[in-house]
Write a sequence for this structure.
């Protein structure tokens, strides 16, 4: 009898151990794959691109998605009437497709009598038409009549740099609660100086649903399909199923929506989203990072408090998690992945704010999203307006919420500052 | 015998938790909605929303100014003492905190420290700031300028941006600039003139500019949002 009981107890312990190990193994996080693995197709005959393993829709390939991302659009397929560029890759290309560029966009507006930001109404076509309630001023048009020009009433003006899209599938897969929790922790980490603002914005493909914003300088988008749709209408003037109406009909010759499904049943915005979801996270310069200077710089980065906003590591939601208001399920390729974005994807006032309000509340006028520092070594100019040409200057431009951290930086020795910048140059 | 008769039950006993744990890998969960609670919102004492004007109104004394310059620039520069120290205070960068602008001279044997690429201040030449023209379809930015270098016999304008209610007197107020070629005969704080607003645009927040007479030319020093620039009114 006792022998039987002992056998059952042993079996129970064994089963519990195996079950626990199995659960832990299935849910343990792994490093996200990294690499600049999307060489621009027109410079590399035959695709040499490698995806992160994101499952492609039936009949589609990563190279085909990249081809759409690089496609140059014209008036015949809906470009304009007002636009900034003819292709996604025009602004997202360095050092390869999906990366950054020096291209900026222009946003303007003004304040009402109470100091609230107000979007402009831009008259075009010699005053015969207008484009209301839109802070973005497109720098190009398909005809002179449609060209937008900034009226003198719009006294808030700012330039915004093009952002990186590589690795954004992992960013999309971060649970909103993870970002919210980071925002709650920051005041305690910083003695009350730092408090990132978490905002929730509509998910266009899931009407009525909201989610933690994470894309764009104002965190104005929460999903990559929403972001692709928004960029297609606003940067290229191509209407699509989520943004079906053009900004103006002046010189318009096509019918809406201009982005229609192909033989795979996918519209361009679907290909863009799949491409971005398939890109790897940005790699570090591992040789430089391994140097003692960079290692010491990394320690300083954390010890002086840069890491409070430029968060070094975030783990994405587990595979199978339904996000984007039910419109997307995190696949194994993106789930439970540890990424190193060096951002909290929250809005902060570090004294460089531009006065523009987009999807957030009024108090976000002078706040900007913490720019991820992964891939920083690919930038020659920095900050949202690209006005900083040196790492030191970019750091010194931080104030307000960052004042204590910058004070710590200013008290470093020259050697320590050099080490910190060496670390930044390894990202 | 007892054990043998219970082998199927034993196998089932082992398989159930194993299958259950495997099932977890594919189980769908839904991102929980985030409901920010007012009680959970962190209180931030040092970074209030932008105010309509500077909070610091205590008149600045020469001693205050020297102390602030020493705190930020160390022994690298000295307040220009020929005649009365020339300094003004106001909210130059429009963040609601009082800033300081004072004429200084570099200490001759500290030029290397002043011009160090990792110094704690930015050296700028406001007369060389490029202002993108409006109403152009494509703006071609000029090449990045060479880093500014301070010379031995220059007269500079030092700027210290304030922080918190103490403004430029706050121990953490160390965002600083050394401005070349703009130390004028006199300095006075005023609101941005209409001609500047027509040229630059209305600023996103209320701020002061500094009127000067620079080598016979009247103009104002103003903060663009990223740098200090000179606007010649003539």
């Amino acid at each position: 009898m006792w022998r039987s009981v002992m056998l059952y107890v042993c079996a129970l312990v064994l089963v519990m151990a195996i079950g626990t190990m199995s659960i832990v193994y299935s849910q343990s996080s792994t490093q996200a794959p990294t690499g600049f693995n999307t060489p621009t197709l027109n410079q590399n005959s035959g695709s040499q691109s490698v995806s992160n393993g994101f499952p492609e829709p039936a009949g589609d390939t990563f190279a085909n998605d990249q081809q759409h991302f690089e496609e140059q659009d014209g008036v015949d397929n809906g470009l304009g009437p007002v636009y900034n560029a003819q292709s996604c890759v025009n602004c997202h290309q360095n050092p390869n497709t999906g990366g950054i560029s020096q291209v900026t966009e222009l946003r303007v507006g003004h304040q009402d009598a109470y100091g609230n930001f107000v979007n402009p109404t831009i008259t075009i076509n010699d005053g015969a038409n207008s484009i209301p309630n839109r802070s973005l001023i497109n720098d190009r048009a398909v005809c002179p009549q449609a060209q937008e020009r900034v009226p003198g009433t719009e006294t808030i003006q700012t330039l915004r740099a093009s952002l990186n899209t590589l690795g954004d599938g992992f960013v999309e897969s971060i649970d909103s609660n993870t970002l919210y929790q980071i925002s709650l922790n920051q005041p305690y980490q910083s003695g009350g100086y730092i408090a990132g603002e978490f905002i929730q914005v509509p998910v266009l493909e899931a009407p009525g649903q909201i989610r933690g914003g994470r894309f764009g300088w104002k965190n104005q988008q929460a999903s990559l399909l929403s972001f692709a749709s928004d960029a297609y209408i606003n940067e290229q003037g191509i209407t699509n199923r989520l943004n079906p109406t053009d900004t103006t009909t002046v010189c318009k010759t096509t019918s809406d929506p201009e982005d229609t499904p192909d033989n795979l049943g996918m519209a361009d915005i679907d290909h863009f989203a799949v491409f971005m979801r398939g890109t790897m996270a940005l790699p570090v310069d591992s040789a430089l990072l391994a140097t003692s200077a960079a290692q010491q710089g990394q320690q300083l980065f954390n010890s002086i408090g840069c890491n409070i906003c430029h968060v070094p590591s975030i783990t994405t939601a587990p595979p199978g998690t339904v996000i984007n208001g039910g419109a997307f399920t995190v696949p194994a390729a993106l789930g439970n992945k540890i990424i190193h974005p060096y951002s909290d994807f929250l809005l902060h006032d570090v004294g460089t704010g531009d006065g523009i309000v987009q999807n957030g509340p009024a108090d976000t006028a002078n706040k900007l999203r913490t720019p991820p520092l992964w891939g920083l070594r690919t930038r020659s100019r920095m900050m949202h307006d690209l006005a900083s040409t040196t790492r030191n200057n970019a750091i010194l431009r931080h104030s307000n919420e960052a004042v204590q951290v910058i004070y710590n930086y200013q008290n470093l020795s020259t050697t320590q500052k050099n080490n910190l910048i060496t670390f930044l140059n390894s990202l | 015998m007892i054990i043998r008769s219970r082998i199927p039950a034993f196998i089932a006993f082992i398989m159930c938790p194993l299958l259950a744990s495997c099932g977890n890998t594919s189980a769908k969960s839904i991102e929980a909605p985030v409901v920010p609670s007012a009680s959970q919102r962190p209180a931030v004492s040092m970074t209030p929303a932008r105010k309509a004007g500077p909070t610091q109104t205590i008149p600045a004394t020469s001693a205050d100014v020297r102390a602030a310059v020493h705190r930020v620039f160390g022994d690298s520069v000295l307040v220009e003492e020929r005649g009365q120290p020339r300094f003004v205070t106001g909210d130059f960068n429009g963040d609601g905190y009082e800033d300081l602008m004072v004429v200084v001279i570099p200490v001759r044997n500290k030029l290397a420290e002043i011009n160090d690429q990792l110094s704690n201040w930015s050296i700028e030449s406001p007369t060389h700031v490029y202002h993108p023209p409006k109403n152009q379809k494509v703006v071609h930015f000029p090449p990045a300028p060479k880093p500014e270098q301070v010379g031995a016999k220059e007269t500079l304008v030092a700027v210290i941006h304030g922080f918190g209610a103490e403004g430029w007197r706050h121990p953490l107020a160390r965002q600083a600039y050394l401005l070349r070629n703009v130390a004028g005969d006199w300095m006075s704080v005023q609101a941005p003139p209409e001609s500047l607003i027509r040229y630059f645009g209305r600023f996103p927040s209320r701020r002061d500019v500094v009127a000067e007479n620079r080598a016979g030319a009247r103009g104002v020093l103003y903060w663009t949002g990223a740098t200090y620039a000179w606007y010649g009114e003539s």
